[in-house]
Specification:
- The protein is 37% helix and 19% strand.
- It has 318 residues and is an alpha+beta fold.
- The chain folds into three domains: 48 residues; 86 residues, Helix Hairpins (Orthogonal Bundle); 148 residues, Immunoglobulin-like (Sandwich), CATH 2.60.40.420.
- The strands form two sheets. It has a six-stranded mixed sheet with strand order 8-5-1-2-3-11.
- The chain is elongated.
- It starts with 7 loop residues before the first helix and ends in a 27-residue tail after the last strand.
- Bound molecules: copper (II) ion (CU).
- Copper (II) ion binds next to loops.
């Protein structure tokens, strides 16, 4: 006998009476009040949305000011299309679950639907399909990674970034721009957040150094972070390049739990025009924040101007 046998008419009647129309039964007045409350709350929640929140929604929950750089745009695309692919797969799976559980539902008390087990084609399918999906994600991740780590051998600006417990020092190459040559610098302290100023449109290379423990250099809106590892020197250091797309303000932080005041390792990022950037470097020079080679912290920290304050003993002052 099929699913709908000769006794299907009473079965359907039973289903109608018992299950199909069992829902939330509220008196009409209460339903209206509930609806009004829900509408009001939705309006309140939506009304509280700032422009930044809305940008975050259109960026699939990435920061509103992202991607910020040419490289970040590749990451934003990977993120976006991964979500779209996941949602399509999700919609198919949810659709099948609901359809199958409704279409093959139990139709009478003394009859159960056909039970499917040990179905080899099905099992092969649901083993291979996820592997295939992981391969596709992996492929696009590698492609994106290669693009964002592409290295221009002659970047326009080199900035030696030092993550030290618990702030940042930014050394901007100055003059002829030779790596390891003269720099102007700005250094944050445990009580003062530094600002990293970047020129728009240029290729900027960040070279990362740490005198103490592993930190992670993260400008949130650029969608890119990289570990700052102690002991690395010269060209063997972790480094990456960015091309900021437009002027604006970004936030930066340490993304590696690095000690008691890890949470203080914040910095601001200002992307400015080329002329403003040049002026900024001159201002640093005029302030005396000039050194013949990059300040890389560590043993040098207590002897180099601008770094003493960040060389507080463990625990610092609170
Ligand atoms: Cu840190």
């Amino acid at each position: 006998m099929g699913v709908l046998g000769s006794d299907s008419v009473p079965t359907i009647r039973l289903v109608l009476e018992r299950g199909l129309f069992v829902g939330l039964q509220l008196p009409k007045g209460a339903r209206r009040v509930a609806l009004a409350v829900m509408l009001g709350m939705s309006l309140l929640v939506l009304g509280a949305c700032t422009q930044d929140d809305k940008d975050q929604v259109s960026n699939f929950a990435m920061p509103g000011n992202s991607p910020g750089t040419e490289q970040g745009a590749y990451i934003a695309d990977l993120w976006k299309y991964a979500w779209i692919a996941a949602l399509i797969v999700g919609a198919i799976v949810w659709g099948l679950i609901f359809f199958i559980s409704w279409y093959y539902r139990r139709r009478s008390d003394d009859d159960i639907p056909v039970q499917t087990r040990y179905n080899l084609p099905l099992e092969i399918f649901y083993t291979i399909a996820p592997i295939f999906m992981v391969i596709v994600f992996f492929y696009w991740t590698v492609i994106t990674q290669d693009k964002i780590l592409e290295d221009d051998p002659n970047p326009d600006q080199t900035i030696e970034v030092v993550g030290q417990q618990w702030s940042w020092t930014f050394n901007h190459s100055y003059g002829d721009g030779d790596p390891g040559g003269p720099v102007v610098y700005t250094a944050g302290t445990a009580s003062q957040i530094p600002t990293l100023v970047l020129p728009v449109g240029e290729t900027i290379e960040f070279k990362l150094s740490s005198p103490d423990v592993i930190h992670s250099f993260w400008i949130t809106g650029f969608l890119m972070k990289m570990d700052v590892i102690p002991g690395q020197t010269g060209e063997d250091r972790n480094s990456f390049q960015v091309n900021p797309l437009e002027e604006g303000t970004f936030r930066g932080k340490c993304a590696e739990l690095c000690g008691v005041y890890h949470s203080r390792m914040l910095f601001d990022v200002e992307v400015v025009s080329q002329s403003e950037y040049d002026q900024y470097l001159e201002d640093l020079k005029a302030k005396g924040n000039y050194a013949s080679e990059p300040l890389l912290g560590g043993a040098d920290a207590s002897t180099q101007a601008g770094l003493e304050e960040s060389n507080e003993p463990e625990g610092g002052q609170e």
